[in-house]
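Encode chain A's predicted structure.
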Amino acid sequence: MRVRAVPLIRHLLLATGALTIVAPLMWMVTTSLKPANAVYQPPYLIPDTFRWSNYEQAWSAAPFAQYYLNTIIMTAGIVAGHVIFDAMAAYAFARLRFPFRNTLFLILLATMLVPQFVTIIPAFALVTALGWLDTYAALIVPRLVDVFGIVLLRQYFATIPVQIEEAARLDGASRMRIFWQLMLPLSRPALATLAMFSFLFAWNDFLWPLLVTNSDELRTIQIGLSAFQGRYGTRWNYLMAGTVTATIPCLVMFVIFQRSLIRGIALTGLKE
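Encoded structure for chain A:
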């Protein structure tokens, strides 16, 4: 009986944890479909009537289309920068031989211990000096490179046998050709993992876009939701409708890349 009870208890704990995570999301979705006078009335999760017009009214109450466009542009630039520049730096640390390579990599690792709030003031001062405030350059350029991505890809590149590169070099391939046509295609799981993490980081970022943008024309979806909450703080159904639309891209990206995400995390750091 004790042996049979262990799996049951395990599944009950997992179900409780899953319910704890899913319940706020269910409340968010159902609240976005309720009338304003039914937000605090039971049943709290399943409304008596579904008001789909809340989404249309929320989008018309604030320029969410512009917020979405700004967030897409910013996110696409950051993800592309992370995938390209992080991969180039990771390949250099994994394969090239140059003085103080290991020391530089250790210094790079040490920067991950520095809190973001320590570097955000110098970054803001630099952006201000360049005259980039309230521009896409301020949103994208300071975050084109990520140390986590360099470490992740460097560890994955180390799992690829060196003999494959040596065979390509014997066929006359250059370093750049090996990198673009050999290493990157072989590293698709790790690149997908990095792209997923970078997407979530950029899409949900709040502090940096708040500092470098001042107008609705450059606000991202997270800043727009905060401004919407300040303007319509008591209209929880409209606010939740905007929040649902901001959450959907993250869920879609996870569904698309979940297999590559799991494989990339599982294989990173395994040396053959």
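Residues 27-267 form a domain with the MetI-like fold fold (CATH 1.10.3720.10).
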